[in-house]
Amino acid sequence: MTERTRLAIIYGSTRPGRLCDRVVNWVARELAHYPLIDIDLIDPLEFDLPFQHDREHPGVAALTARLSEADAFIVVTPEYNHSFTASLKFLLDLVYEPWHGKPVAFVSYGGISGGLRAVEQLRLVFAELHAVTVRDTVSFANPWGRFAEDGTLENPLDARKSLVLLIARLNWWSNALKPARATRPYRSIAA
């Protein structure tokens, strides 16, 4: 039996006029067709996050609570200067335990590489956060002009096929890891 998956989609950009809004809208609209997925959009701009690392800050507590509820994550990330954004790194570093023992997938966008250099660096960060990254990605090379304001994608067939595979594998990991976390919480593992 397959259980419901609580999926958090995380915005990887906080820049004004960000393309991230359109890409997230496309992902969320595509995943709305999956009846066993509950989507929570995590936009760093919606939290009153501090300017420095302060895990006691109310905005961090709210972010931690939302991330803790998720069974799996999709990070929508741009590539800036061959890497992911400073705002995304800050968000990842603000919390620790909510990532443990959970799967993470990526939808990326950028220039000629489609954001894949950012994704490769994010895999290293999530390994340190004790998360499992899904190999499959959805990547948009030179996406400017392909997304309408509401997230409608021009020529979506290939991206949709990639997203179907990504979500199938993310869901597999979620269904495997959720009972493992329930049986033995990840924080209980000690050397």
Automatic annotation (TrEMBL):
Cited Pfam families: FMN_red
One Gene Ontology term, aspect cellular component: cytosol
GO MF terms held by the record: FMN binding; oxidoreductase activity
Residue ranges of every copy of the NADPH-dependent FMN reductase-like domain listed in the record: 6-142
InterPro entries per UniProt: Flavoprotein-like_sf (IPR029039), FMN_Rdtase-like_dom (IPR005025), NAD(P)H-dep_reductase (IPR050712)
UniProt-listed PANTHER family: CHROMATE REDUCTASE, NAD(P)H-DEPENDENT FMN REDUCTASE LOT6
Protein name: NAD(P)H-dependent oxidoreductase
Organism listed in the record: Rhizobium tropici
